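Collaborator request, handled under Task 6.
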Amino acid sequence: MESFLHGDKKLRHGCHRKFTSHTMSSPCLRTRNVIHLRITPSTSLRVIIYLRQENIAWFNENGLLPLVISTLQPVVVNHLVTTQAKSAAKRKKEMEIFHTLNHDSFSLAYRFTWHDIHQAIMLREPLEETSTLYRPLSIYPYQLSVSIDHPQFNHTILDAYFRNL
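Structure tokens returned to the collaborator:
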């Protein structure tokens, strides 16, 4: 899975908003971050990563984004495989459930949320100095919302934070 953040601009402190799993370089994140995971060449899944203000420096200094993405990969694959055979009503009901994962470096709570509006984005790929190729990328009608905190963080507080978003 390839992932990328909205935009390609350089942020303060030398951080970049572009991230690919191939480079394993981590951009500096903020309290709310939109990432698209490319599932197939023409589809992606929107992932919203939430960080508390006091955890931004810790997350960025430790370069945890590639580790978070690799931790979520089996969750995403399992969700995509198991939801295909279920009805839309059953998928929406199951998406209301919060899940937690513990890792040595962080704790996270996640859930899938349904969107009634189907979205797509255009990827710009420069071919030469004078020409550009635009490719459509369809986004799944649901997104993965993730809240990340320190590994020792209390999950009930993490879940409460997540419900208030």
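The cover message to the collaborator said: "The first helix runs from residue 56 to 61. The longest strand covers residues 132-149. Please let us know whether this matches your experimental observations."
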